[in-house]
Design a protein that fits this description.
Layout (H helix, E strand, L loop, with lengths): L1 E8 L11 E2 L1 E14 L4 E6 L4 E6 L9 H14 L7 E7 L9 H16 L6 H16 L6 H8 L4 E6 L4 E6 L5 E11 L3 H22 L14 H5 L4 H25 L3 H17 L6 H11 L5 E6 L5 E9 L3 H16 L4 E5 L6 E2 L1
Parallel strand pairs: 4-6
Antiparallel strand pairs: 1-3, 1-13, 2-7, 3-6, 4-5, 7-8, 9-11, 9-12, 10-11
Helix pairs in contact: 1-2, 1-3, 2-3, 2-4, 3-4, 5-7, 7-8
The protein binds alpha-D-galactopyranose.
């Protein structure tokens, strides 16, 4: 069996597609695959969670938003690399909540790619598989995502986060060791239907900023090349909206590097402070938050002794809020949050305590 974990991201949001830094980790929420050659040209797949069978051939791949479209995207990635595949029988099940910002789709692609890579001896590296997963998301789901999610699912390490440089595509493991503090996710249960088009719009705004900069400095390749001191130059070149988006990204790249230093020093207070900063940047400037996420982060700020940091995680518009919280406060805090959230939004949030785990592997 192949196990493919979901991921959290401690900090570094919307920086991956700008060649910046991110600090994600694989977690103990996962998708499990049982896969064997079908000895035909058919890919016969069964999803336990969707209670659905879907069969396809490698010459009839199509895009769409269903779980099997991602599998087709992975098959297409192998084909585009000239790698011959025949069919498989595959059963898939898992416990990563979908649409919660924990990258269930990246786990789906990473795990399926890993399985067929092993079965057909295609000899692809983990980085190749991450690229195939990202490409599947672009070409088969229409989201022009970065590579963070697939990379974290494939390269995760127990008890560590990955400081990933999205320009060089190399990483350093940083142990997450905040004594007495755990990672708690609070799921807003908000699934924004326009999230993927808004995501692509944000990416387009960043690209517009880079293009404008390139007219005066051809050495600029991405927002990674812009530092906080050059921002005033950019302000004169683009609309206020594009500027505000680019400014957030440039600052977030810088913040992520500072946060990594605090993580290495086990300085949970400073690390957490930067998480809050990221959240309000995502909300006010990058404009990818929502009232539910903002309420949860505001509540977190009301418990400064217990909650060291909190912010919305992932692409945005809901999903999970990641918290760094003192162990002894979890129960009391969860009760308070649930109560307030239900009164305000008439729906229940979910709570997941997560541990950091190794990336995609055989079991
Ligand atoms: C989604 C994308 C990632 C990344 C985050 C935002 O999870 O899949 O590539 O851009 O949003 O940081």
């Amino acid at each position: 069996m192949v196990i493919a974990p979901g991921r959290i991201n401690l900090i570094g949001e919307h920086t991956d597609y700008n060649e910046g830094f991110v600090l994600p980790a694989a977690v103990d929420r996962e998708i499990v695959f049982a896969v064997a050659p079908s000895n035909t040209d058919q890919f016969n797949c069964y999803s336990i969670d969707f209670e659905e069978v879907f069969s396809f051939r490698a010459n009839e791949l199509k895009s769409g938003g269903q779980w099997y479209n991602y599998l087709m995207g992975v098959v297409s990635g192998f084909q585009q690399r000239g790698l011959p595949l025949s069919g498989v029988d595959c059963v898939i099940g898992g416990n990563i909540p979908t649409g919660s910002g924990m990258s269930s789709s990246a786990a789906l692609c990473s795990g399926f790619g890993f399985a067929i890579n092993a079965i057909f001896k295609s000899n692809l590296s983990r980085l190749d598989l991450a690229r195939i997963g990202q490409q599947a998301e672009h070409e088969f789901a229409g989201v022009r995502c970065g590579i963070m999610d697939q990379y974290a699912s494939l390269f995760g390490q127990k008890d560590s986060a990955l400081l990933l440089d999205c320009r060089s595509l190399t990483h350093e493991y940083v142990p997450v060791n905040f004594p007495g503090v755990q990672i708690l996710l609070v799921d807003t249960k908000v699934k924004h239907t326009l999230a993927s088009s808004a995501y692509n719009d944000r990416r387009a705004a960043c690209e517009e900023g880079v293009k404008a900069f390139q007219k005066i400095n051809s050495g600029i390749h991405s927002l990674r090349d812009v530092d906080t001191d050059n921002l005033s130059t950019l302000q004169k070149l683009v609309s206020t909206d594009v500027f505000t988006k680019c400014k957030f990204v440039v600052e977030e790249i810088d913040r992520t590097q500072r946060a990594a230093t605090f993580l290495k020093l086990n300085d949970v207070k400073e690390f957490g402070r930067l998480m809050f900063e990221t959240h309000w940047g995502l909300s006010h400037f990058y404009e990818v938050s929502c009232p539910e996420s903002d309420l949860l982060v505001t509540l977190a700020e009301e418990f400064p002794k217990d909650v060291l940091g909190a912010r919305q995680m992932g692409g945005g518009f809901g999903g999970c809020i990641i918290h760094l919280i003192r162990n002894e406060a979890v129960e009391k805090y969860s009760l308070k949050v649930r109560e307030k959230y239900v009164v305000t939004f008439k729906k229940e949030p979910d709570f997941y305590s997560v541990a950091l785990k190794e990336g995609v592997h055989l079991n």
